[in-house]
Amino acid sequence: MSKRFGCSLLVLIFLFSGLGVKASFLDEQLQYSRVRAAYQSKKDLISQELSKKGLESTNFQLLIKAYKYEQLVKVYVKGKTDEKWSLYKTIPFCWTSGELGPKRQEGDLQIPEGFYSINHFNPYSNFHLSLGVSYPNKSDKIKSPHSRKGGAIYMHGGCATIGCIPIEDEPIKEVYILAVLGRNNGQSKVPIHIFPFEYSEEKMKVASTEFPEHVNFWKNLFEVEEKFNKEKIQGKVSIDAKGNYFLNN
Questions:
Q1: Whole-angstrom Cα distance, residue 223 to residue 63?
Q2: Dist CA 247 CA 91 (whole Å)
Q3: 205-243 pLDDT, tens digit each
Q4: pLDDT at residue 123 in the model
Q5: What is the dihedral sign for C-alpha 79, 83, 86, 90?
Q6: Does the pLDDT at position 5 exceed 60?
């Protein structure tokens, strides 16, 4: 990004502020040098990949799903008015920590499991760029007996983790910019859903034998996820008074 472009951007934002016009989320994020560099590096690639799905950078929404056993992140996109999601890209974890099962307390090294959304865009991350996961959510708070449940869970660059999802620097640039664009398109909550594994009866049988304490929790997760697995349609996920997930539409 040239100095001239950066100065022009800041002048534009200043003028918008002076006129009482709120800068877009993309404009706000482009104030940060790492985000500007990522945007310049990935914007053409993103446009090309979206075009293959019949989408443009100004009319799509984003959905992220992560699978701990397979150590994979699957990124999905769709048009604002579409129902079905299309797979945009699959990205491997660079590292992992903990074991299968939900995160229930601070310091347990667990990657959470459940239905979350991105709650923080961090352009100053120690791991290049990072996207905050809204752990602990209402379900985690109800189901955990521990007073200190932990937090500060991110998907980020680099290859280190004590409960986060690291995907290296180049992939996080692309996912971060996708999330910024999705937010800029009016998607106030970008979902990020984390599962112990990609569902199959065989995996469920094996995992349930090894971790019987998580069986009911996993059954609940996969009951909610069943419609997406079959139809690639993601309903709105809510949480009841017992901390169980359910689709409310």
A1: 19
A2: 27
A3: 999 999 999 999 999 999 999 999 999 999 999 999 999
A4: 98
A5: positive
A6: no
Q: How far apart are the first and last CA of the chain?
A: 44
Q: HEC states along 69-98? A: CCCEEEEEEEECCCCECEEEEEEECCCCCC
d(CA 68, CA 73): 9
Which residue bears the tokens 């069986």? 215
CA distance 163 to 153: 7
Which residue has 């189901």 as its token pair?
143
Cα separation, 69 vs 237, in Å, equals 23
Alpha helices in the chain (DSSP H): 3-18, 25-29, 33-52, 138-143, 169-184, 201-210, 215-231
Q: Is 194 exposed, middle or buried (0-12, 13-18, 19+ CB in 10 A)?
A: buried
Sign of the dihedral defined by the CA atoms of residues 101, 194, 69, 200, in that order: positive
pLDDT one-digit tens code per residue, 56-85: 999 999 999 999 999 999 999 999 999 999
Q: φ and ψ at 225, to 5 degrees? A: -85, -10
Q: Would you state the structure tokens that stand for residue 179, as one six-digit string? A: 């999330």
Please state, in angstroms and rounded to a whole number, the distance separating the CA atoms of residues 14 and 1.
Answer: 19
Q: How buried is residue 70: exposed, middle or buried, by Cβ count under 10 Å (0-12/13-18/19+)?
A: middle
Q: What domains does the chain contain, in order, with CATH numbers?
A: 60-247 (2.40.440.10)
> How many other C-beta atoms lie within 10 A of the C-beta of residue 20?
6
The token pair at 193 is 């859903």
**Whole-angstrom Cα distance, residue 10 to residue 218?**
48
| Structure token pair of residue 77 | 């996109």
How far is it, in rounded angstroms, from Cα 160 to Cα 168?
9
